[in-house]
Design brief:
Length: about 475
């Protein structure tokens, strides 16, 4: 049943299955759009904590929106059957991890679809929100048919999510586009109603909308495709972004060989609108729960259909090498690491999140520990998650970013937390044994670091060493003299 909400659209009854990153954010944002949402998870403890106001992930704006909607338009439950009965649209947002053979493991999706089949009491649309391989919508339909559900009682929709961790709420409410992959006109109309507050803009006109790029005059396009195209769009989008990162990292390596600056190259090529400025930050490579998994799954899907996506195999290899190159830089500069003490700024796979899954920082730390050095590490929010997966007698953590410098041989910046750029590096230099910074995210200002007398090594940027500092000062003096 639908009812008019205060934003003028018909509020839909929606179930979101899965309260992980995508599920929790999607459920909360659908409630914010005026829909009645039931978020289901089989993890009883997680649901109980959500019901009591606990926010399980670090995500900007999520606590505020949960406070606003939980118990009102958003409820949490473990009872999938009841939720299915109460809803017209059921979004599947459960995990699709990488199986041992590189394919996406769809067992959680299958389990949920079977449960839904057993509870269906009328027409429903089943919406894939999780990232799934192409043709999964056909596979879902076949499961429902096998469980005796009539083809007239359901439609399948692919509606991939493009939110980024750290900016997930803003990304959801101000998307570049909304993709709806379905062959059914009835399902298309339901999806159009669900997203109407965004695509028709009246959410942005309401006084209390989440701030962002879209407005009543600039609404996100709703793009209708086939289910297969929609499924491929999600994999292709992530693979393309990962490719951009590996591309700029390869050029960064060339920059190091010829003495050019990758920041200048990124600006120079990124201002070409056909290329675009985003995802051209060179560094220690991409991590997280999506790019590594999705690039692997996309390669695997392609090879199942006899198509060679070797380009993406290279993207993965370049990404892995990028960490090794960074480690080589540290080893070459410091000599034997045995007995050295290093300070680490950043554990999360990127700034703005407490997520450490596939974090390049953690794999670099593990290698450094193997080299026999001791490490003191700081992250604004990811220490607890790191402690759960990485423990070593020579690894300690601190909540004070300055104490990572105490008596250390060097500092390594491994996550692009913007607050690291605001730190007082005069104080950091005072505490360090030797003033050396390895900036794995090109976060710090090269000129400032140089002026402060640091040895500074970024990625794809001319190194500032005390000898180059001396040389550049000599050049400047000579230039002034002539
Ligand atoms: C990514 C996509 O950006 C989202 O559109 C998508 O919805 C999501 O995956 C998903 O599939 O669920 P996310 O994993 O949150 O989002 O993080 P990104 O901001 O894309 O960053 C991924 C990694 O690339 C991070 O380790 C980041 O540090 C690295 N990165 C990003 C770079 O090394 N350089 C860049 O220029 C940009």
């Amino acid at each position: 049943m639908s009812r008019r909400n205060n934003q003028g659209n018909a509020g839909m009854s929606i179930t979101v299955v899965g309260s992980g990153y995508v599920g929790l954010v999607a459920a909360t944002c659908f409630a914010e759009l005026g829909h009645s949402v039931i978020c289901v998870d089989n993890n009883q403890q997680r649901i109980a904590r959500l019901q009591h106001g606990h926010v399980p992930i670090y995500e900007d704006l999520l606590p505020e929106l949960l406070r606003k909607h939980v118990g009102e338009r958003l409820i949490f439950t473990t009872d999938l059957a009841e939720a299915v009965k109460a809803s017209t649209a059921i979004f599947i947002a459960v995990g699709t991890p990488t199986a041992e053979n590189g394919e996406a493991d769809l067992s959680a999706v299958q389990y949920v679809i079977e449960e839904i089949a057993d509870s269906m009491d009328g027409y429903k649309i089943i919406v894939e929100k999780s990232t799934v391989p192409v043709q999964t919508s056909d596979w879902i339909a076949s499961i429902l048919l096998c469980r005796g559900i009539s083809r007239t009682c359901f439609d399948i929709v692919s509606n991939p999510e493009f939110l980024r961790e750290g900016t997930a709420i803003t990304d959801f409410m101000h998307p570049d586009r909304i993709i709806v992959g379905t062959t059914s006109h009835r399902a298309w109309e339901i999806m159009r109603d669900i997203y109407a507050p965004l695509s028709e803009g009246y959410y942005y006109a309401s006084g209390s909308s989440v701030p962002g790029r879209c407005s009543i005059d600039q609404t996100p396009p709703l793009i209708r495709t086939s289910p297969a195209s929609s499924e491929l769009i999600k994999h292709a989008a992530n693979a393309f972004l990962a490719m951009k990162i590996s591309f700029i990292n390869s050029v960064a390596n060339l920059c190091e060989a010829v003495g050019a600056d990758i920041q200048e190259i990124a600006l120079g090529i990124g201002t070409d609108r056909r290329i675009g400025k985003g995802f051209l930050n060179a560094g220690i490579g991409y991590g997280g729960s999506c790019f590594p998994k999705d690039v692997t799954a996309f390669c695997s899907v392609a090879s199942q259909f006899g198509v060679d996506l070797d380009l993406l195999v290279q993207v993965r290899e370049i990404n892995a090498q990028q960490r090794e190159r960074f480690l080589t830089k540290v080893r070459t500069t410091l000599g034997s690491l045995h007995g050295k003490k290093l300070g680490i700024l950043g554990l999360a796979f990127k700034g703005g999140t407490d997520d450490v899954r596939e974090s390049p920082a953690l794999s670099i730390i593990a290698s450094l520990l193997q080299d026999g050095c001791s490490i003191i590490a700081h992250d604004p929010v990811a220490i607890t998650n790191t402690q759960n997966v990485l423990q070593h007698h020579a690894l300690t953590y601190t909540n004070d970013p300055y104490s990572v410098a105490d008596q250390c041989d060097a500092i390594l910046v491994l996550t692009d937390w913007q607050e690291f750029a605001q730190l007082d590096f005069v104080e950091i230099k005072r505490r360090l044994k030797t003033p050396i910074v390895f900036d794995g995210r090109n976060l710090l200002n090269i000129d400032t670091m140089s002026a402060m007398g640091f040895t500074y090594l970024g990625v794809g940027r001319p190194p500032v060493t005390r000898s180059t500092l001396h040389r550049s000062l000599t050049h400047s003096v000579a230039a002034i003299a002539t």
